[in-house]
Design brief:
The structure holds two protein chains of two kinds. Chain A is α+β, with helices and mostly antiparallel strands. Chain A folds into two domains: 168 residues, no CATH class; 179 residues, no CATH class. Chain A contains eleven helices and ten strands. In chain A, strands 2-3-8-5-7-6 form a six-stranded mixed β-barrel. In chain A, strand 6 and strand 7 form a beta hairpin. The relative contact order of chain A is 0.20. The radius of gyration of chain B is 18 Å and the shape is globular. Chain B has one domain: P-loop containing nucleotide triphosphate hydrolases (Rossmann fold). In chain B, strands 6-7-8-3-9-10 form a six-stranded mixed beta sheet. In chain B, helix 6 links the parallel strand 7 and strand 8. Helix content of chain B is 34%, strand content 25%. Chain B is built from seven helices and ten strands. In chain B, helix 3 packs across helix 4 and helix 3 packs parallel to helix 5. Chain B is of the alpha/beta class. Classes of the chains: A alpha+beta, B alpha/beta. Chains A and B meet through helix 1 and helix 9 of A and helix 1, helix 2 and helix 3 of B.
Chain lengths: 387, 241
């Protein structure tokens, strides 16, 4: 009877396509919108996750997010190094500077100054060149998206594309000469600013007007020491803010949640998608079942149990849910791929996101099936003899 | 009928009331009826006299209020709902006025439905359905959809569907009323020639006097009662009028 149930479903092509379309559209909304939200949230903490090695981030106690720059005196580094349980601690500069392009335009960029000796805090993936080349004179490493986008050399002619930066190109950062020695792949920043890596000492030369440059101290607990305990110890003994990387990520996210309505707005669209999907799917599926009510009555008269009829309806619902979700997820994935690397915010389609939206679709189709099935279960088989 | 042979259908004092209060309608008022194995009995009477209610009770798809109704010696009311459903699936075949064929299924698939409900594998069920379709004269139309068949052909698919699982009782509700005279005769001929068997009974509800001569007996109903039962000869005479 399973095959019969599916043939009944495919036989009513208009309704079948209607249900599939409804579920596919709902799936698109329920995958794409959270996908974009995840992508945006990823930019919030991407800088923290890009720097994988240190387990502890030390900062000014007033810092509320990774983009909140409140530099400390360099002497704080030595205080942190002296705390019991700290294996090592290195400085990290993170600030904004204007980069002058060949045509005189300036582009606001993020400058990241790494510890000169260890280069800890460097980019996660080098696309071209080596991280160690930062030790060369005037050396900088530029993020891939920035090199191809906002920092690309303008052609000077209208309509012609800019030429991406290449190794050996010279830029001016705050009127100081900088030479490109490599390109790295990093998580996009929230404002899509180019990210430029250099050494901590050279970052100081780019930021002569700033008295304090030590934005963060990256620290590692000794083997066997808990990162959260060591972080708490640092905070207590220095008066600085100290968090594990995981906690700092959460704090940065919380700042966004508390100070923007981004989650509410995206969540609203997702809820609307769910409701519209449920309403459209439920209505069409219900109508489909009503149209077939007479035949279900015939089945019941001929000896089909309620369980068999319910199984048929559930399988029909699961099939349309599976196909609709597949089309919706596929279309969203294709869209994400098509827009990937365009410099804008690409969406993140993660396994939990697909599981969550798939679960929502499953809920929608099962609900539609159960509402429809109720009518069929209550149907008296004697209805078959009524004109 | 052999004196030891149980009747196919035995109804005694069947009553059925629909609704309550002002909307109360007494559809059956103590119906007594016996249908013998190997017999084709027609139930006739004016609209609203209780014919459809009676075959619904006989087929076990409607509970009566009072009286006893046995199918081959078995009181269906004493079975659980599930047992009764399974009993119907195995022992009873249905033919409807409006055919009730699933539009998306081929003739063979439609005819195979009762077997599929009883859990017979698709391949086996289709083979049996094709055999039944051949018996009712639809050889070569196994793959046709209902929309590609004439009314008479559709009703013959319904007849094949009613027969495919070899039921003991076939109930038909106005099987020819949606068909022209010639097609109705063809359907009745295939129904009588293919469905009739020594151990099987047919109960047909009809208004169509043109098919009365196919009956072994005709039970006339009025106002919820059987008012007269005629034997074959009289029925044929009635049909010739």
């Amino acid at each position: 009877m399973i095959k019969i149930a599916f043939k009944m479903l495919f036989g009513d092509r208009g309704k079948y396509l209607g249900i599939i379309t409804g579920i596919a559209m709902a799936s698109v909304l329920m995958i794409q919108q959270p996908g974009i939200l995840l992508s945006i949230l990823n930019t919030v903490y991407g800088f923290i996750t890009d720097i994988a090695l240190p387990q502890i981030w030390v900062m000014d106690p007033k810092v509320q997010t990774i983009d909140d720059s409140k530099p400390m005196l360099d002497t704080q580094l030595y205080r942190v190094r002296g705390i019991e349980g700290v294996e090592w601690a290195v400085p990290l500069y993170k600030g904004n500077q204007k980069v002058r392009l060949a045509n005189g335009e300036t582009v606001n960029s993020i400058i990241v100054g790494l510890d000169d000796s260890t280069l800890i805090g460097g980019p996660p993936v080098m696309v071209e060149g080596k991280l160690a080349d930062l030790r060369l004179p005037d050396a900088i490493i530029v993020d891939e998206t920035g090199a191809k986008g906002r920092l690309a050399t303008p052609s000077g002619k209208k309509g012609e594309p800019a030429t991406p930066l290449k190794i050996g190109d010279i830029l001016e950062i705050n009127d100081v000469r900088a030479k490109v020695v490599g390109f790295a792949r990093t998580t996009n920043t929230f404002q899509s600013q180019p990210v430029i890596y250099t050494t901590y000492t050279r970052a100081k030369t780019f930021s002569l007007d700033e008295r304090k440059l030590l934005t963060f101290i990256l620290a590692q607990p000794k083997s066997g020491e808990s990162a959260s305990i060591v972080a708490a110890r640092i905070a207590k003994q220095t008066g600085l803010g100290a968090h594990t990387a995981q906690d700092f990520k959460k704090i940065s996210l919380q700042y966004v949640f508390d100070n923007t309505s981004i989650v509410v707005n995206f969540g609203f669209v997702v809820v609307v998608g769910f409701i519209v999907g449920a309403a459209v799917t439920g209505q069409i599926f219900y109508n489909f079942t009503l149209d077939n009510l007479r035949y279900f009555g015939v089945f019941k008269a001929m000896g089909a149990t309620n369980r068999l009829v319910l199984t048929m309806i559930l399988l029909q619902a699961l099939l349309v849910g599976f196909v609709g979700f597949g089309i919706g997820a596929g279309a969203t994935a294709l869209f994400a791929r098509a827009t990937q690397g365009s410099g804008g915010l690409s969406m993140r389609i993660t396994a939990p996101l697909l599981l969550g939206s798939g679960g929502a679709v499953l809920f929608i189709v099962l609900l539609a099936a159960l509402i429809s099935a109720r009518k069929v279960i209550k149907l008296e088989p004697a209805v078959v003899f009524k004109g | 009928m052999n004196s030891e042979e149980k009747p196919a259908v035995s109804c005694r004092g069947i009553t059925k009331v629909y609704g309550a209060g002002e909307t109360r309608v007494q559809a059956l008022r103590g119906v007594d009826l016996e249908v013998r194995p190997g017999e084709l009995l027609m139930l006739v009477g004016p609209s609203g006299c209780g014919k459809t209610t009676l075959i619904s009770v006989i087929a076990g798809i409607l509970d009566h209020d009072d009286g006893e109704c046995e199918l081959f010696g078995r009181d269906l009311r004493k079975l659980s709902k599930l047992e009764r459903t399974h009993y119907r699936g195995e022992k009873i075949g249905f033919v409807f006025q409006a055919f009730n064929l699933i539009p998306a299924l081929t003739s063979a698939e439609n005819a195979a439905v009762p077997l599929l409900i009883n859990g017979v594998p698709m391949e086996k069920a289709l083979a049996k359905a094709v055999e039944c379709l051949r018996k009712v004269g639809l050889e070569g139309r196994e793959s046709a959809l209902p929309a590609q068949l004439s009314g008479g052909q559709q009703q013959r698919v319904a007849v094949a569907r009613a027969l495919v699982h070899e039921p003991k009782l076939i109930v038909c509700d106005e099987p020819t009323s949606a068909l022209d005279h010639k097609t109705g005769q063809l359907v009745m001929e295939s129904l009588k020639s293919v469905a009739m068997a020594r151990d099987r009974a047919l109960v047909i509800v009809t208004h169509d006097a043109r098919i009365f001569d196919f009956a072994d007996r005709i039970a006339h109903m009025d106002d919820g009662r059987i008012v007269k039962i005629e034997e074959a000869d009289k029925a044929a005479a009635l049909a010739s009028l």
